[in-house]
Amino acid sequence: MAKRERPVDVVLVGFGWTAAIIAQELTDAGVQVLALERGEFRDTVPDFATDTIQDELRYAVRKQIFESPERETLTFRNSADQTALPMRHLGSFLPAAGVGGAGVHWNGQCWRFLPQDFEIRTHTEQRYGRKFIPESMNLQDWGVTYDELEPHYDRFEYLCGVSGTAGNIGGVKQAGGNPFEGARKRGYPLPPLKRCASTVLFDKAAREAGFDPFPCPAANASKPYRNPLGVQMGQCTYCGYCEWFGCGNYSKASPQTTILPVLLKKANFSYRTRCNVTRVNTDNTGKRATGVTYVDVDGNEIEQPAGMVVLCAFAQHNVHLLLLSKIGTPYDPTTGRGVVGRNYAYQITSSVDVFQKEILNPFMGAGALGQGVDNFNGDNFDHGPLGFIGGGYIALWNTGGRPILQHYLPKDAPTWGSGWKKVMHDNYLTATSIATHGSVMSYRSNYLDLDPTWRDDYGNPLLRLTFDFQPNEHAMSDYLTDQATKIAQAIPDATHHVKKRDGHYSIVPYQTTHNTGGAAMGADPTTSVVNRYLQSWDVPNLFVMGASVFPQNAGYNPTGTVGALTFWAAEAMKRYLKNPGPLVSA
Amino acid sequence: MSMRDSERGKGHGHRGGPTRTSRRTFLKSVVAATPALGLLGCGPRHGSAQARTPVYFTPDEATFIDAATQRLIPADDLGGGANEAGITTFIDLQLAGAYGRAERWYMQGPWPHGIDQQGFQLKYTPAQIYRDAIGRVEAHCRQQHGKPFAQLDPAHQDDLLHALEKGEVDLGDIPAKTFFAMLWQNTQEGYLADPAYSGNRDFAGWKLIGFPGPRYNYVEDIGKFGRPYEAPFVSLVGRDPSAYLRGES
Question: Domain Glucose-methanol-choline oxidoreductase N-terminal: where (chain A) (predicted)?
Fold first, then answer.
């Protein structure tokens, strides 16, 4: 029999970004909140201290800062006619385990999605007609608008101390910012990061190519910053160890550097680590969550009763829990019916590596030190003659110059031997790379369900991912790569290595940890798992956070939108706690 | 229910590098994670990597790795090669530790063959792959040339490495491409990782490319466009990692 813990008002599954925000908001509202985290407690000191964290082999290559697939992974195949096989070690994406979640090891690239992204079906039908949308594409509006989310984007950016240059304040275009962005109420809390040699090269070349470059928004503090919770952050020192590392300098926004110093002192908040939640429990009606069951570090199964449950785990883990808990109707790809696991999407990326003469010192960098253009994101350009939906940003990010994984070699360079030594010697300090970061739409054939064969350490079926890039995404990404090449060509005395994203999706090479969907939000319960407030249609005292609710993925890194949606949902939860019940009638 | 924690003590306490408690516990932690203590008191560090007793490799395996990695990263006009950089020791210690045992990998069967996009699907750990593959490569050398890999002339060694890279040698269960990719990846790691891990000796790899080591503050320097950064090379264990690894600092 499972041991039973004392009931709490709200239990959070996971203790990363979304859990920290929800916990801070709901404890302020006076309820008792408990977070259950499967990983370890981690904090800036001692875990991310600068004399230990700058270890590329340990953290980035051996992946010790991420989740370990040893006990729990997923299986993967490109299409339903293949047998999915376990992802035996991490590759394409790098979810976290441990307090702070992926908020510890992200780069801090903190974007807002475009207003049209949230109403993409309505917008696409109006501009291009219904027939423009491929039959296999599950293109969906989000059920929430940019204008509704704007105050919540603002809250997240001010929480994080985002550095940037506004492009549109109250509908008035601002010089030097992103001219395509949605209107914001006020500018960023901090000015942009310093420029480095490579971002200056990009800026000049992008202008010559006729585009509109701007400093990318960075949750790396350009100056010392005290956030609205009174938490102090330090100026970024450009040490080049952001992504795949914790920040030792209190400069990169994470739960640890923005919320936890306040949250952890609260009497009505607690957390437990090394607790792996395996079920959301429901009562005999199946319409009310009664809490969760987890397995603790000693292998004991423990029941945690709660008045409300919030899934704050990484995207696909939330979906896995819903499927294991039999909450919501699982998606059936043969009929197209059902919702849990539907609308899985990702990101499609490519790059153009640039080899030129000037010394760039790539190791002086920051995770979100970048210059970008948004001319080809969303519907900022006419898709009519192009025939595809979506877009992405093009940017030069100088995240660092870590030697094992961050060196660039010319096309057809020798892969080993003295020739390899020579190209490493000749190019490390002077090469750079322009990235494209494209949207991925949702399709009938891309989904998550439970694997029939492989199991995790707790005896549960692994999650099964069925995913491939579709022709729409390849066409979009190729177009984006062509535009990036135009920028590369405007850099003087340079040669290029164009790396298109060809062929099938592969789980092997790292691309992005921007896994989205599976528990889509929306206005229609037949095509979404949660309503516009991220509340389960089936179980009103269950909420689902994170990128798992994205109906499809836009051409930006997701964290800014995840943060905004979390603040938006927290407001709704406060209303729910005063007056429990569905916040939207189905 | 299988809980591996109980078998391993602390399931998440993976070792093999400078730890968060103190960089000075680094060496101890490596040794703690290895089955045999072959690291301390092993004499002066001059000479080839074979000078120290391998922890995981047999002497013959270490000889093969010395020879193969020295072709992958040769000594030439641009500086020393893999042997001078201590890469055999680096790989040996990696295979003796958590990586060699695939501690963080999902290793539950069944084990059907997959397609390239599905990635690694072998039931062997990196340590097992090296042992099995080296034995088969050496058997191939003896059959084709009548001597072990290390005694072939460099041109023949390169030919064989190219054949492995292209998957043209039969290594039984282990695709030659997989072994070559792992060997080349680990060789690069040994050349470019922090010298605290016993490779990249005397900052050989970082000197070749111009990476100054993990430094903390570039606030002023990042604005000096086009200028080389000139500061002493530094490791997580200080400016003289070799002395540190000998226990002298």
Answer: 232-344
